[in-house]
Every structure is written in structure tokens, then in C-alpha cells.
Specification:
Strand content: 15-25%
Helix content: 25-40%
Strand order of the largest sheet: 3-2-1-4-7
Distance between the termini: 18 Å
Structural class: alpha/beta
Largest sheet: 5 strands, mixed
Shape: globular
Number of helices: 5
Order of helices and strands: EEEHHEHEEEHH
Length: 144
């Protein structure tokens, strides 16, 4: 199945703050956050106030993500930004030489024409709402 991915991170190139997947079939989404101890001012003003869930340690987020995807024989994570994919892939690293158990995963980077998460999301900069907005847009306007 396809899952529409959005993440929030602490500034360009910064560490992960929140990760969300909105499944294509409208089923139960995935949403988790990790602590952000020193947010940059923009993140402190626009992201932290709308996270809406308690953070968990990064290894817990990775285990939760793998568990969420475990029963899907071929999950495809669709993103509109390369850094989202990088953070999702990094979340699956359990430690040196180890990854959280997931049989296979595919990432699909797409540039959806006309998509603007800040305009289309019910709560801009909330990873879950942004992932849902991406799913809605992409189902109506698939990438070529």
C-alpha cells in the first residue's frame, strides 16, 4: 500500500521532530514525535505548538514505525521532499549495524504540481495533518 509521508524537523538539515504516514486507503494513520530540546525560533513558533502528542525516544519511534508497517508486504512511502524520506529511512536504524525489523520498504519522491502543505493542511506544520493533505492532493492529482 502507499502511505503519504510528512515529517517535521528542527530547521533545514536538522533532526527529526515528528513523522506521520497517511495510508492511501484512509485507514489508521501513523503519527509519532521525538523530543526537540533546542528548537530554532521558527520551529518553536510554528511546529512545537501544533505537535499535539507526547514525544517518545527515537528508538521507540523507529520500533513503532516498523511495527506499523510490518504486516504490509510492500509498503511504499510517498513524499514531496527528499528530507522526509531521509528522516523516515533513518528512523528505521535501530543501532550500529542493526535496523528495526521490516521486510521491505520503497520510497517514492514526487513533486506534486500545485501542492502547498501550508495552504492545504488543516493544521499547517503538524506532520499528520500535512501527510493527510498530501494524500488528498496526490489522490486528486497524481504525479506523472
Amino acid at each position: 500500500m502507499r502511505y503519504y509521508l510528512d515529517v517535521e524537523f528542527n530547521g533545514f538539515g536538522g533532526p527529526l521532530i515528528a513523522l506521520a504516514l497517511a495510508p492511501e486507503d484512509g485507514g489508521v494513520p501513523f503519527y509519532a514525535a521525538v523530543p526537540c530540546d533546542d528548537p530554532i525560533p521558527w520551529v518553536a513558533a510554528h511546529v512545537i505548538p501544533v505537535i499535539g502528542i507526547a514525544p517518545v525516544p527515537m528508538p521507540v519511534l523507529g520500533a513503532m514505525l516498523a511495527a506499523y508497517l510490518r504486516d504490509d508486504p510492500h509498503p511504499v512511502l510517498v513524499a514531496d521532499w527528499p528530507e522526509d524520506i531521509a528522516h523516515a529511512a533513518s528512523a528505521l536504524i535501530a543501532g550500529p549495524g542493526r535496523r528495526h525489523p521490516i521486510d521491505r520498504i520503497t520510497f517514492d519522491l514526487c513533486d506534486p504540481v500545485g501542492f502547498d502543505a501550508a495552504r492545504e493542511s488543516a493544521i499547517p506544520h503538524n506532520a499528520l495533518e500535512d501527510a493527510i493533505a498530501l494524500r488528498t492532493h496526490m489522490l486528486a492529482h497524481p504525479c506523472r
